[in-house]
Amino acid sequence: MVLSQLDFSNVVLSLLRSEYKRGPKGYDPLSLLYALVAMQLEKIPTIAKFVDRLKSDPVFRYNCGLNVLGPVPSTSTFSRFLNLISKSEALEEDFKQLILKAKNLNIIDGTNIAIDSTKLNSFEKPKPKSKLKDDGKSPNWGKKKDTDGNDIKWFGWKLHILADS
């Protein structure tokens, strides 16, 4: 399975702070992270639809590392968790380490690369263009043409992908 091959130990360590030792235990950060990755792999467009899928599919819940018989994290839980990991630098650092490891193993060398981009929808409620922050991090309105020349509009980001070929 894809999730078992991902090492998020640094991310989980960055999220475990002493201030979280009080109050209810909550959900395991690794399970929440696995769940968000699974959401992208399954191409589930919204957190609400994702939570519905977790509630109705115990096998999917198990694969995400969540308790099959226990309660499912709410949309608010996932939103707060997304906010928490977006403030952490751990994912970016892990990505950089993964690139260096791949270079050292001669999996990638950088001599031949391919570049592509795709739209990335935001989970935020779309806002009028006049009320958007132009800080390079906040979602914005995007537009592109598909292969048939039809306009595709979205609220989110444009993800640029560079791959070693």
UniProtKB/TrEMBL annotation:
Protein's organism: Thermoanaerobacterium aotearoense SCUT27
Region (Disordered): 125-150
Transposase InsH N-terminal domain location: 6-82
Identification of the protein by name: Transposase IS4 family protein
InterPro entries attached to this UniProt entry: Transposase_InsH_N
